[in-house]
Amino acid sequence: MKIKVLSIFMVMLLALGILTGCGQQNTAADSTLQAVETAALSTAAAQSGTAAGSTLAVTDTKATKYPLTLTDANGATVTINAKPVKIVALPLGTCEMLLSIADKSEIAGMTHFVDDPALSNVAEAAKGAGQRLDLNVERIIALQPDLVFTDTWSDEAVIKQLRDAKINVYQASVPSNIDQEKEMLKLLGNITDNTAKAEEVINWMDQKLKEISDKLATLKDNQKLSIVDYSEMGSTSGKNTNFDDLVARAGLVNPVSKEGLDGWPQLSKEMIVKYNPDILNLPSWFYDTSKSNPDALAKAIKADKALAGVKAVKNNKLFLLPYKHLSTTSQYSVLAVEDMAKAAYPELFK
Asked: CA of 37: how far to CAs of 30, 31, 202, in Å?
């Protein structure tokens, strides 16, 4: 029997709302921000790279020179004449990055998802920073922002209306791994003249990843556990997804990716039985709780006779990790690596 297929509507909602908007939710954003702010600033120049679909390469931590002209992920030429001091950010990941590197007074508007502690890593930090918006032409124009950050999933007709109204819009690709998140931080740092602060955040990410990697150093390939993602809408995560990148960094194996499946393919019970994963990753947050919820899903899986022989079910390895870490496309995704590694290999983190 097939599990319900992931709809394109949900994918776009994740991109335009949670990713762009987007059980264990105890990691406070303010403490992480403090750790980032007090991290030692690297004296080495940042490596050159293409940031989130842009042609701009950030190579050092010098002050930004304006006017700044760059090409966004959809090929549009965007010229920023002066340091932006009235920014609208619609992707949640972009909001989380900006709140870590820019002054709150420079943020005029953000997605309303930024205030949801189940989805946002900066719910506390976001208080008092700008208005709450969606991709609404009239409201954005009324703010008269210097710059609007959105992504390539956004409605092109709306983007055209904003540009016709002389609103500067930069569209970035949604990062699909941690390296791309670092490049996005470099890009945002350069655009907003906060390159040094962006480097501090990247240094914090690298330090956190090294701590995890050091803990996993003794883990051999034949000791690595397998994990399959099981979403609210019945999809899983394959190659070229954030989840797959997190899994690899957490010392785990994603059999969906290993089989060559790309993106978010539909998942069936037959596939779960075939993969026989050591761990099933279940959502700890549901967009639509009218029909089910995380606890109900876990109970249904445990009670399903067709899945009774799956290792994850037999050994009660159904993970409900903090959704705000797993779903983010910002620097906080390194916390998902930590969550996953600790849950999978608790003995290595004692």
From this structure: 10, 10, 11
Question: What's the CATH code of the domain at 334?
Answer: 3.40.50.1980
Nearest C-alpha neighbor of 203 from the set 349, 44, 344, 11? 44
**68-71 and 77-80 as β-strands: parallel, antiparallel, unpaired?**
antiparallel
State how far the Cα of 178 lies from the Cα of 309, in Å rounded to an integer. 34
Stated as kind and residue range, the H or E segment containing 172 is strand 169-172
Q: What's the domain range around 325? A: 8-16+215-349
Model pLDDT for residues 51-110, shown as the tens digit of each residue: 444 434 444 557 999 999 999 999 999 999 999 999 999 999 999 999 999 999 999 999
pTM: 0.84
Q: In 101-161, at which residue ranges do the beta strands (DSSP E only) sit?
A: 107-111, 131-133, 147-151
Per-residue model confidence as pLDDT tens digits over 285-332: 998 888 889 999 999 999 999 999 999 999 999 999 999 999 999 999
Q: Is residue 345 part of a domain?
A: yes
Half-sphere CA count of 8, side-chain side, radius 13 A: 1
Is residue 224 domain-shared with residue 297, that is, in the same domain?
A: yes
Nearest of 261, 343, 340, 273 to residue 301 by alpha carbon: 273
